[in-house]
Amino acid sequence: MNNTLFIDKYTPKILNKFYLPTDIRNSLNVLIQSDCLNTLLVGGMGTGKTSILHSIVKEYYSGIEEKIYMQNVLYINNLHEQGINYYRSEVKTFCQTHSFVKGKKKIIMIDDIDEINEQSQQVFRNCIDKYSHNVCFLSTCTNGQKVIESIQSRLTIIKLPIIDPTIMYQVLEEIIQTENIIIDNRAKDFIVSISNNTIKNVINYLEKCKLLNKDITYDIALSICSDIDLYTFEQYTEYIKSGNLKHAINIIYKIVNEGYSVMDILDNYFMFIKTTDKLTETDKYKIIPFICKYITAFHEIHENDIELPLFTNNIMKVLQ
């Protein structure tokens, strides 16, 4: 039995395996071959920015063992929250040392550079000016407007398109054929619809289907491809539509008592609203702003389950 995770098995490792427009793929290949990799990949969530970044590094050091060329790479992820002193000292030290690979530059990979403060971005701009003869600078961002102009002007900017739904279906079909997963068409549509245009989500959902080791119907997909059983949300919504506030609140608190946070509940209810056929598009249009409002409030101010009855009451007013 192969114990490799689907995400490792089906995430592309080379550029030709990514579902990229031909012009973007050709541009990246030219940059690799010309040894001019100072590049900024701009794209939304799920466009594959980080995976593409790693594949660029792999192809740049083609023919060299990973354990050797990784000594030549400094990977910086904004989530680590390194301070300005890290950027000034560690990055400078890395840039000043010679490459471990003959004929190749060192590489600094910066994920989510738009989340790094302006002062730290200025440090990178200085490094680009001073060390480009020895180091390539590869970075990604979601919002290009948050990247200072002096960095943008020094990097080749490549904008990645949103993944088209037809590509999502293509990936899904390739995996179910390879893994011999039997899944009905309605379940396929559901999996794609809740994936948020992210191939990784499709891959993870299909791994759940594979582990279940049975024919996957829509009802089964509904139960395994969401953190909270979507049938519970169907019942919750029906009570709201019928004006039964007490029973609706009881259901939402039942979910809380199962260990889910308020944010978990709102995120999953948002997914349910987008995919359900129990509500008209007009009703969905009315509900979604309230969900977004509460998610924003809980994220920025506080998270308290006492707000859930108020949320439920507001949704009931909207639908009546």
Automatic annotation (TrEMBL):
Keywords from the named record: ATP-binding, DNA replication, Nucleotide-binding
The ATPase AAA-type core domain, residue ranges: 40-157
Record GO terms (molecular function): ATP binding; ATP hydrolysis activity; DNA binding; DNA clamp loader activity
UniProt xrefs under Pfam families: AAA, Rep_fac_C
GO biological process: DNA repair; DNA-templated DNA replication
Gene3D superfamilies registered for this protein in UniProt: 1.10.8.60, 1.20.272.10, P-loop containing nucleotide triphosphate hydrolases
Annotated GO CC locations: DNA replication factor C complex; nucleus
UniProt domain Replication factor C C-terminal: residue ranges: 236-288
InterPro entries named among the record's database cross-references: ATPase_AAA_core (IPR003959), DNA_pol3_clamp-load_cplx_C (IPR008921), DNA_Rep/Repair_Clamp_Loader (IPR050238), P-loop_NTPase (IPR027417), Rep_factorC_C (IPR013748)
Protein name: Uncharacterized protein
Species: viral metagenome
